[in-house]
Amino acid sequence: MLGRRIIAATVLSVLSSFTSVAMAQDWIYTTTKGDNLWNLSEQYLDRVTRFEALRKINGIENPKQMPPGIKLRIPLKWIRSNPVPATVDELLGDAQLQRAGTSEQLALQHGDEVFLGDQIRTGGDSTLAIRFADNSILTLYADSLIRFDHLSAHGKTGMVDSRLNLIQGRMDTRVTPASGPGSRFEIQTPSAISAVRGTEYRALVGEDGKVSNIEVLHGKVKVSGAGKHTLVKRGFGTQVAEGKAPIKPRKLLPPPGLTAFDAPVRNVSQLVSWPAVDKAEAYRAEVSADADFDVVQWSRISEYAKIALPDIADGEYYLRVRAIDALGLEGLNSVQPFVLDAHPQPPLQLQPVPEQVLRGDTAVLQWTASADAARYRLEIATDEAFTQLVIDQDDITGSRFDTADLPVPGEYYWRLTSITASGEQGPVGISRSWQVKPAPEKVEAAVGAVSEDGKLVASWRAGSAEQQYQVQMATDENFEDLLLDQLQDEARISFDAVEGQVRYLRVRSVESDGYQGPWGTVQRILPIPDYTPLWLSGAAMLLLIL
To answer: Between 128 and which of 91, 279, 397, 402 could a Cys-Cys bridge form, CB atoms 3.0 to 4.6 Å apart?
Structure first.
């Protein structure tokens, strides 16, 4: 008795399996008002004469009067199949189209149709979006090559069969949910096949072409390799090496914690950072003008949890960042909108250098010519916050400005803003400062006083408390044979009197910032007279007298 039950259950299971397979090959159509088997056959089937067979398999007694809501089972093989092209929906950069059976490379254009057997190759920093007959979207990135192996539709049923071969590079897909058993979207790579029925996922072929990565963002993807299959669910990815089965799906890295932009980006190459993601080996950052990222204006990989934004046209954009693990599987996306308002860029300031101190002379400001600027706004202030403006001009067309009219001495801050011919002002440039101080006077030393210890003393008028003095003494007027070279705080120096030798002395001031003033007048120091011969002569005369 038990054996019969087991056999019956087995037979029932097998029959149920066959029924499911059979049903899977049928398209289910729900009738609407005015439908009849003749017009349905004319509209959807490969030939009108199948209407009688359609009546029989569905048990329809009156094929001319069918109420709405009847579900008709239509074998998939009876449905009309016709080739349908895909269309280039968007294109940024350059791409080449090679028609099937030819070797000619054509420049791909927006709106071009792509047919069975055609190939598309994208250039560096290029992306394009391909739209299929069921409105599925495929984004093909830079340096990629793809071939369209099958492009067909099942009449007007909405079922589309698209099969592609990603030979090189990477792509994203947003596949429209299947509308019936005839719907198919399949991506083949050199090492794997991935089949979906309504999902969003990414595919990448490694540089050597022997490894493929599949990352699923929504839905499920059946991935095959070396005759083995695995089902990859949302938030997981797999890798398939040539001749090997797919690895066990692994969880994709979480989205990086991008924070919202609290203001428009006003600087080109502004740095954006985020907390490091655990187990991340690198990060991919992309910028697009649309939230769906059908095409991207810019894409880079960074080893660090930060990236400098690109220099692109002002506008509204989205920044998308994701972490990359040790296998190269790219994780979940973090997206933030931002507004770029960084043009025209301010020029680069050349002179004076930051915080330069000028002695006596006023500054001549110089800067580079900004490519997009027709004129510049120059602001000069006596405070870093630019609340005390002394100059504010927005009609400067050159790249230099003489500040001879500014009071000296003084400390000043300056910044520039570029203005286009239409009057659009770019971001304010960085602030730099310079300072004008009085030129130090010559230090005029006087020599002649004698100290209590019998030494000669040179002295001069003292300057500010921050000044020091460089004193040099030499045996020659060119000061090549130096006897003394020292830096001191006092405005005097003493030295021994020397017999039989002429010496030369000069002094100059040294400011606290190291600036050296001019040398003072060279002082000639005569030697002490030698009275020995006179003393001997006097002694001789005295002896003669005695």
So the answer is: 91
**What is the average pLDDT across 342-367?**
93
SS (H, E, C) 76-137: HHHECCEECCEEEEEEECCEEEECCCCCCEEECCCCCEECCCCEEEECCCCEEEEECCCCCE
Together in a domain, 192 and 241: yes
Alpha carbon distance 239, 247 (integer Å): 6
pLDDT at 326 over 50: yes
- Between CA 290 and CA 37 the distance in angstroms is 45
Terminal CA-to-CA distance of the chain, rounded, Å?
Answer: 172
**Once rounded to an integer, what is the mean pLDDT over residues 515-539?**
72
DSSP secondary structure letters along 247-288: PPPEEPPPPP-PPPPSS-B-STT-EEE-PPPTT-SEEEEEEE
Alpha-carbon span 516 to 539, nearest angstrom: 54
Its sign, for the CA torsion 457, 459, 465, 468, is: negative
Q: Rounded CA gap, 222 and 236, in Å?
A: 12
319 and 287 in a single domain? The answer is yes
Cα 423 from Cα 428, distance rounded (Å): 14
pLDDT in the model for residue 29: 83
Average pLDDT of every residue of the chain: 89
Contact between residue 44 and residue 155 where contact means Cβ atoms under 8 Å apart: yes
Question: Which tokens sit at 139?
Answer: 């984004």
Task: Report if residue 174 sits inside a domain.
Answer: yes
Confirm whether 4 is domain-assigned: no
CATH number assigned to the domain comprising residue 175 = 2.60.120.1440
Distance in angstroms (rounded) separating the CA atoms of residues 246 and 236? 13
Same domain assignment for residues 169 and 317: no
For 43, 337, 534, the CA distances from 259, given in Å and listed in that order, are: 53, 10, 97
Give this prediction's pTM.
0.72
Q: Are 210 and 178 in the same domain?
A: yes
Q: How far is CA 467 from CA 121, 137, 464, 491, 512, in A?
A: 71, 75, 5, 10, 6
pLDDT at residue number 451: 64
Write out the residue range of the structural domain in which residue 331 sits. 271-335
**Strands of 175-256, DSSP E:** 184-188, 193-196, 200-205, 211-218, 221-225, 228-232, 236-241, 250-251
**Residue type for 356, please?**
Q
